[in-house]
Design a protein that fits this description.
single chain; 334 residues; alpha/beta; Rossmann fold; Helicase, Ruva Protein, domain 3; Zinc Finger, Delta Prime, domain 3; 5-stranded parallel β-sheet; two-stranded parallel ribbon; 7 strands; 57% helix; elongated
Length: 334
């Protein structure tokens, strides 16, 4: 995400490179970079002459080079977007030679989608030396709330860290859907600009009280009755909330809580050591007062043993709700 922010900042300042090699698994970032380049370089007059979109399945390296060698007629630059470039497997060394002696009046954006470009190839090395190489990685789960906050800010919306996390928990990790969700919320807010949990619940269609992270929070607070309500909901929606995912969230929580206990200065060190937003340090601090280090270890053992049951090891089967209830009772009894 750091590379993405850096390149967006450069483009906003009209600082362009003559060749971009963009690869990686997060298509959202690739699309945003391409859209911004088009916005900054192409206008209504130049788009018919100095703007070209080529597709990997329909073009080849010779064609890309031929178009890139053309001099712009109206715009300052001749912009060539090569989409689905992963389908081009011949002539890449020739494209590398072009980069070593490229036209400064053309900008080629080579979009190698859904995979990382091989760093051993000559094209990568030439692009790294004479152009710009960008790897667009999928965000980790703990990076999603920050992404929500940044997109909200770009729309002049205000959202708290807890609601940023709630929204990302509600929608998932698809960045384009998160952006669409925020656009929907903005329309619903009309003149207002602050996103509340009620607005998220109404517009996104997800109950904030009943998800895996709320279960985690209530367990951390030793709130048995609320946690019991949540496991009833999760088990009745097993397709949306498979038990293996619930166990994964619970395991991650107690693992982080275990690390929290081992920190010399947990309130200061927790964000970097646990990979969490500083806003959530209070949650872990409260949970650490409810579960000792030994209790965290025992909780992890309970979750591990339950995971074996789910996988059919030393077990002939399980009931979703009954297993979650068993885990909850055992952990709350520690």
């Amino acid at each position: 995400m750091k590379d993405y922010k850096s390149i967006i900042s450069e483009i906003e300042k009209n600082q362009f490179h003559s060749f971009y090699l963009i690869s990686g698994t997060e298509v959202f970032f690739t699309d945003r970079i391409v859209k911004l380049l088009v916005k900054k370089i192409v206008n209504e007059e130049s788009k018919h002459f100095d703007y070209h979109v080529l597709y990997g399945k329909e073009t080849n390296v010779n064609n890309i080079i031929e178009v890139a060698r053309r001099f712009p007629l109206i715009s300052n630059y001749n912009l060539i977007i090569v989409k689905e470039a992963q389908y081009i497997d011949k002539g890449l060394d020739d494209l590398a030679k072009y980069i070593e002696n490229l036209s400064t009046k053309s900008i080629v954006v080579f979009c190698y989608m859904n995979k990382v470009f091989d760093k051993r190839k000559k094209l990568y090395k030439s692009a790294f030396k004479y152009g710009k190489v960008i790897e667009c990685k999928k965000l980790y789960e703990n990076q999603l709330p920050q992404f929500v906050n940044e997109i909200a800010n770009s729309m002049d919306l205000i959202i708290s860290p807890s609601n940023s996390k709630f929204l990302s928990d509600s929608i998932g990790s698809d960045l384009s859907i998160i952006e669409k969700g925020l656009k929907k919320i903005k329309l619903a807010l009309k003149e207002k600009n602050e996103i509340s949990s009620d607005v998220i619940e109404n517009q996104i269609g997800f109950s904030k009280e009943f998800n895996n992270f709320e279960l985690q929070n209530e367990i951390g607070l030793r709130n048995f009755s609320k946690a019991y309500q949540i496991i009833k909901y999760l088990s009745s929606n097993s397709k949306k909330y498979p038990i293996i995912l619930t166990l994964s969230v619970m395991h991650s929580f107690f693992q982080k809580l275990l690390i929290f206990h081992s920190l010399r200065n947990p309130l200061k060190e927790a964000p970097s050591k646990l990979g969490i937003n500083p806003f959530f340090v209070k949650q872990y601090n409260l949970a650490s007062s409810n579960f000792s280090l030994k209790q965290c270890e025992r909780a992890l053992t309970i979750i591990y043993q339950s995971d074996l049951k789910v996988k059919g090891i030393n077990s002939s089967g399980f009931n979703h709700f009954n297993l979650l209830k068993e885990i909850l009772v055992k952990i709350m009894s520690l």
